[in-house]
Specification:
- This protein is of the alpha+beta class.
- It has four helices and eight strands; from the N terminus they run αβαββββαββαβ.
- It folds into two domains: about 60 residues, Ribosomal Protein S8, Chain: A, domain 1; about 60 residues, 2-Layer Sandwich (Dna Ligase, domain 1).
- A hairpin with a 2-residue loop joins strand 6 and strand 7.
- The longest helix has 15 residues.
- The two termini are about 30 Å apart.
Length: about 130
């Protein structure tokens, strides 16, 4: 199986497992970007605890699900966004104002669009979750 976008595969695995009611899933492969996005999702109470397992055959992440996700996914193409443009993308990817998060890659690392707006940062949109 060829993985063209590992982040998209992880997001779709999480969404599919949530839909069928699983409590725990294992996603492979793991990367710094995937772990950072999962940390943001955990901080915003979309997933529970998770831990990265390093093996000699590649790393994977075990994620505890808390059935709190309606929809999540990656944003393609990864749009560049200015500090003043977040509202346009909120309307496009989230179902209501102040409901859900956009994950943004900024010069200060990954964060939610709310944190980036507060800090006055632009960046690239990576994923959404609500």
């Amino acid at each position: 199986m060829v993985l063209n976008d590992p982040v998209a595969n992880v997001m779709s695995n999480i969404l599919n497992a949530e839909k069928i009611g699983k409590k725990k899933i294992r996603v492979k492969p793991s990367s710094k970007i995937i772990v950072k996005i999962l940390e943001i999702m955990k901080d915003n109470h979309y997933v529970g605890e998770f831990n990265e397992v390093k093996t000699n055959r590649g790393n994977y992440v075990v994620i505890n699900l808390i059935n709190n996700i309606n929809k999540c996914g990656v944003i393609k193409p990864k749009f560049s966004v200015k500090n003043t443009e977040y509202e346009k993308f909120e309307k496009r990817f989230l179902i209501a104002k102040d409901f859900g998060i956009l994950v943004v890659s900024t010069t200060q690392g990954f964060m939610t669009h709310k944190q980036a707006k507060k800090k006055g940062l632009g960046g690239r949109l990576f994923a959404y979750c609500y």
